[in-house]
């Protein structure tokens, strides 16, 4: 026994308290994730060939809904508004969810000529699709036709797999209203071997005179399975 009057026996840690703290931490974390899931995050499962070779049927995606929650003005101020090259999910009334890529934002002028997309008078060079992929026109953005201007509050969204995509090129879909957008694709979480963050697709605007159109092949088709 220690006779020192200033000595105190060390407090014995209760292992049950440690376990309770552990449970409280994970309960709090689970609550945060649950709230995030139903507010700032969304989900979508790929259905159809329109985004090959980058997305395949059955893949499960997580969406970032922050731009929708903030609204156009705040999202623009913070640099979070939708950009050319981003992948989004939207739902036009009467249609199922559609997974497409942003090609034009309000004020942009879009045309299709020689199997390629023209954005504001220049060729849109897209690193996320094969060079051979030929972009055909539709009833809204016609092959070799005049430029169309994206109205305020809308975007133009086109599938990566141009020969097998119904999108803004057609008047059936047309300009996509911002209010139809569910969110931009943030993550692919299934299948596990293709787990990845989905960032901004790399694009570059090239003068028509400097671009090689000979590589575009109208007969080219993307692989039906991941390579």
Task: Please render the helix and strand layout as text.
Elements: H1 15-38, E1 41-45, E2 60-64, H2 66-70, H3 72-77, E3 87-90, E4 98-104, E5 109-113, E6 116-119, E7 122-126, E8 148-149, E9 154-158, E10 176-177, E11 181-190, E12 196-197, E13 203-206
Overall description:
The protein has helices at residues 15-38, 66-70, 72-77, and strands at residues 41-45, 60-64, 87-90, 98-104, 109-113, 116-119, 122-126, 148-149, 154-158, 176-177, 181-190, 196-197, 203-206. The protein folds into two domains: 15-42; 45-53 and 60-215, Umud Fragment, subunit A (Ribbon). By secondary structure, the chain is an alpha+beta fold. Strands 1, 2, 3, 4, 9, 10, 11 and 12 form an eight-stranded antiparallel β-sheet that branches. The model has no long low-confidence stretch (mean pLDDT 89). The longest helix has 24 residues, at 15-38.
Q: What's the rounded overall pLDDT mean?
A: 89
Helix content: 10-25%
Number of helices: 3
In the CATH classification, which architecture of the largest domain applies? Ribbon
Name the CATH superfamily assignment of the largest domain. Answer: Umud Fragment, subunit A
As for the number of domains, it is 2
Strand content: 25-35%
Unreliable residue runs: none
Structural class: alpha+beta
CATH class of the largest domain: Mainly Beta
Number of DSSP strand runs = 13
CATH fold category name of the largest domain: Umud Fragment, subunit A
Kindly provide the radius of gyration, computed on alpha-carbon positions and rounded to a whole number of angstroms.
25 Å
Shape: globular
Give the terminus-to-terminus CA distance. 74 Å
SSE pattern, N- to C-terminal: HEEHHEEEEEEEEEEE
């Amino acid at each position: 026994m220690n006779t020192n009057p200033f000595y105190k026996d060390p407090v014995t840690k209760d292992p049950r308290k440690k376990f309770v703290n552990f449970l409280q931490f994970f309960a709090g974390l689970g609550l945060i994730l649950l709230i995030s899931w139903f507010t700032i995050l969304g989900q979508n499962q790929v259905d159809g060939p329109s985004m090959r070779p980058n997305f395949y049927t059955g893949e499960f995606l997580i969406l970032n809904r922050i731009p929708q929650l903030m609204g156009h003005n705040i999202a623009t101020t913070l640099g979070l508004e939708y950009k050319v090259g981003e992948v989004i999910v939207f739902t036009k009334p009467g249609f199922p969810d559609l997974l497409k890529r942003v090609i034009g934002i309000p004020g942009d002028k879009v045309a299709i000529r020689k199997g390629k997309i023209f954005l504001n008078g220049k060729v849109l060079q897209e690193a996320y699709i094969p060079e051979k992929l030929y972009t055909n026109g539709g009833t809204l953005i016609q092959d070799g036709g005049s430029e169309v201007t994206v109205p305020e509050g809308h975007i133009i969204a086109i599938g990566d797999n141009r020969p097998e995509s119904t999108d803004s090129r057609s008047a059936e879909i047309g300009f996509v209203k911002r209010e139809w957008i569910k969110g931009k694709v943030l993550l692919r979480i299934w299948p596990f071997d293709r787990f990845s963050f989905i960032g901004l697709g790399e694009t570059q605007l090239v003068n028509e005179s400097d671009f090689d159109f000979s590589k575009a092949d109208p007969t080219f088709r993307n692989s039906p399975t991941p390579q």
